[in-house]
Amino acid sequence: MKTGFHYEKHLPHQQQAISSILSVFHHANKQDNDKGENPTLTLSDKQYQDNIRQIQSQNQIDKTPDFSNILDISMETGTGKTYTYTQTMYEMHRQLGVYKFVIVVPTLSIKAGTEQFLKSDALKNHFRLDFDNAYGQTQIELYVVQSQKTKKGKRNNPMPSEIIRFVQADNAHKIHVLLLNMGMVNSKTMKGEDSGNDGSVLLKDKFSKPFEAIASTRPILIIDEPHRFDDSNKTWQSLMSFSPQYILRYGATFNDRFKNLVYHLSAIDAFNQDLVKGVTAHIQTIDGDKQRKVSFIDSDGTTAIFEFDKQKFHLNKGENLHKIHAHISDLYLDNLNKTKVVLSNGVELKKGDSINPFSYSDNVMDMMMRHAIRSHFDNERTLLNRADKIKPLTLFFIDDIKGYRDGDKIAGSLKNRFEHMLKGEAQKALETAEAGTAFYHSLQTVLNDVSATHGGYFSKDNSTDDEKIAQEVSEILHDKESLLSLNNPRRFIFSKWTLREGWDNPNVFGICKLRSSGSETSKLQEVGRGLRLPVNEYMSRVKDGDFKLNYFVDSSESDFVAKLKAEINQSSEHEVVYETFNDEVFDKIKSAYPDVKKRLLLNELYALGVIDDDDNFTSDGFEILKCQFPKAFTVATLKNGKISDNKDQSKTKAAVRVGKYDELKTLWEAINQKAVLQYQMDEDDTLVLFKAFLQDNQQRFTATGISIQTQKMIKTADNRIDFQTQTSLENELFEPIVTMGYREFLTKLAQKAYIKISTLHQAFFELKDTLDIRNFMNDDTIRFMLSGFNDYLLVHSLSRFEVGYQKISSQVHPTKLTDKQGKALSEIDINQDWGMLSESETPLDSFLFDKVFFDSEIEHQNVTDDEIKEVVVFTKIPKKAIKIPVAGGGTYSPDFAYIVKTSGGERLNLVVESKGVAGESHLRQTEQQKIRHAERWFKTLNQCQGIEVKFVTQFESESIKKIVEQALY
Asked: Can you give the residue ranges of the Type III restriction enzyme C-terminal endonuclease domain (predicted)?
């Protein structure tokens, strides 16, 4: 009985790649050489070029070959590149007699995975038993070169024993494979420059250096992940020392630097043919001000200067960026020079670069971890209850290695927080799991020993003496089957970025990117660790499910889906331009237009001058054909639903504490009264203000035509992914374009801005010498004037003109806390309007809800720090709940509402605006104005409602306790 993975034979996309390589050697001459050497494969230049051109035509590849000895096979991650080049070796051995190959991979983790694959009994049995004896008893003999550690007082062996064995091997009935990683290729050992190599050991009586000896075997060189082996670097030069007959490069990423591309399975093909999982992105939104960035502005090589909120911070090497912003934790200045700094997570900043501090918050990281754990258990519930059970894995990328490896010794460490969350989520899931099921048993396993459910692999682990860590690494890198066993409790894997490329596991269903990778990595490469289709408990690939990889990122990667879709769409080969109307062209047309008859079509095309007597397309013939049959020549597009945002995440709810709302009811209904804003100015005042606005902005109406643009992803009519360009009106310089008459322009502007046409005309007339509006009469000008004048009104209200409020309705309910009848809700959905949830904390007893949520650190402190005995109840006010009108057409909503009672029984209704800045001078002018409008509104409310509401602003240095005390006395 076969054990281990069950491999499938004759998968079409793999067989096409294999046959493409073999077809290159059609009509090749084979010359046998000495024992231990591959036969020499030779082709005339013409034959070689003809073969490659024919293969590219058959595979619809529109890439210009360079006819070097390099052959490129592009296959998307997760589609079986390693299997494909392995069967290619078997076929080259069977058909051409080639039996010595050198495989080079970039990293140790890829090397470990390749070694495990090639050595596995399951693979050997697959080629021996599943191909009707096509390969007979042929097996792979693998030679793995490991780094040599020099022991004290001893010299290294002059040449690694595995290289000696590989070079001397002369059994042509086996396939001999030498496996190397990039570091070994560049080592002194390979160059023969090791201290132990004195030239006395000779292979074949003439080679003392490994490169020379390997080159003598006339090998076929296979390169995995070719984008890591740039042909301009020293590694490539070292590889050329092997003198390979041919170089086969297999990868998903070539950065469009192909040599002779003979097969291309694009990402779009892989997703659309369901050869890989789909992807659902979970983007953790953060309600902190996205414009507040920590910027690197200067360095003298010793001290780096950062800026945040107009304050400068000086940091030396090793200092924590926490001193700049409280949300940043465990992020240090790792290195610096006069032009750039490197942070401890690998992120490199040049002068002017910035980071979002909220992305480095432990609260955000904890929420992402918790969501990833929940998603994992949701997958387990489904996958473990299948008839053929599938064990899912989740991968966490972190940069806090110490917090994971030494977590037991550090209070509040990443490891401790993770295990606490994991245990809590397992207990919660157990409540609804059906007893006796595999999922129920799995949850019990977690609760019995939570530490056994996770393990990690980091680069420094390669030299550890810790047996537990060594076991974790062995499972992750070398024993994929053990990791997938239902009897193995390990299902969560932690790594920095050591596993980000090359390593994968078919049952990775979740990847949680807790911190930045430190580089702008291809999104396809990032998700590649979990794209492969899963295997079940019997180690057979499962293709019958709509499997999705859940990918968790923070809001700094809010464009993740757009970038991933763009990469996938771009991966599709450019359209093939045909020179002749051949069977392939007709087949395309026939599949899209079944009623077309070939002979009638040819006659029609000839009559139209599309083709000539020999069925060759005339100069514009193919373009005319495409226009006539557009559906036949569409470029492949990504299927709906394969890549998506997680817009429909299950909502987290917070319960309204029983009885608390009754105390808050009177204040809540009062501040939810509807009102309109009244401008206390006449038409002359409007004219003066509008003229002043135009004068302040007249420099924008120039002939430069420069504007700021943003791009938003849309789906086009032909189902492709495209980007719609939108122009930002802020700081825009207008080009003189006229798309409407003066009367139409004035009418449209008057309707939108609520300004009389006569007033607008008079303003433009009086400024005609400095601003001739007749040159700029278009919709962009109207949009700018509407937006700009509204902002102008807000900034200049209460100084250049007054405003008042008029209550308009007694209808209050429903509100964010009540239904239509005014009854308090029992629970709310915590969304962006309420703030960021912290499930690891408990709110103060006086808080209206049973969960902690907040928008900023100062709000966080208000909800969790120091119970105030005078406070009966308080609530966070969600965004847009209390829409206080402000000048310019906008609205404003404060942050908290408090009910305070003194020992004498007096009641105080307190509404608080919390600002995480040092004082009013640090607020934007628009924010200051909104606060002044709120003061006016509450003054009006006190007069017309018969209730006294005190409105105050809380700044960073003021505790809420101090605010309450000041309000009372």
From this structure: 847-952
Specify whether 384 is located in the same domain as 339. Answer: no
The gap from C-alpha 918 to its chain's centroid, in whole angstroms, comes to 35
Residue 104's nearest CA partner among 188, 163, 181, 160 is 181
Contact 227, 255 (CB under 8 A): yes
Residue position matching structure tokens 């992940």: 225
Q: Please report the DSSP string for 879-940 in residue order.
A: TTSS-EE-TTS-EE--SEEEEEE-TT--EEEEEEEE--SSSGGGS-HHHHHHHHHHHHHHHH
Mean pLDDT of the region 826-835: 84
DSSP-assigned states of every residue in 653-701: EEEBPTTHHHHHHHHHHHHT-EEEEEEE--HHHHHHHHHHHHHHHGGGB
Alpha helices in 390-528 (DSSP H): 401-405, 414-432, 438-448, 467-473, 480-484, 523-527
The span from the CA of 125 to the CA of 118, in Å, is: 11
pLDDT at 2 over 90: no
Q: Indicate whether 497 and 595 sit together in one domain.
A: no
pLDDT score recorded for residue 284: 74
Domain total for the chain?
6
Evaluate whether 822 touches 813 at the Cβ level (below 8 Å): yes
User: What integer is the mean pLDDT of 375-385?
Assistant: 93
Pairing verdict, β 278-284 and 70-75:
unpaired
AA letter at 214: I
User: What is the C-alpha to C-alpha distance for residues 526 and 539, in angstroms, rounded to an integer?
Assistant: 25
Whether residues 214 and 259 fall in one domain: yes
Expressed as residue numbers, the domain containing 614 is 583-629
- Joined together, the tokens standing for residue 485 give 């066993």
23 pLDDT tier (thresholds 50, 70, 90):
very high
Cβ neighbors of 715 (< 8 A, separation 6 or more) are: 721, 722
Coil/strand/helix, residue 958: coil
- From 227, 247, 265, the end of a domain falls on 265
Closest CA to 839 of 828, 850, 829: 850
The span from the CA of 188 to the CA of 224, in Å, is 22
Would you give the end-to-end CA distance of the chain in angstroms?
85
Instruction: Specify the pLDDT at position 95.
Output: 96
Tens-digit pLDDT profile for residues 918-935: 888 888 888 899 999 999
Q: Which residue has the tokens 């009264």?
A: 673
CA distances from 445 to 433, 450, 584, 763 (A): 14, 8, 57, 77
Q: What is the CATH number of the domain that holds 401?
A: 3.40.50
Kindly list the distances between the CA atom of residue 52 and the CA atoms of 17, 58, 72, 768, in Å, as whole numbers in the listed order.
Answer: 13, 10, 11, 69
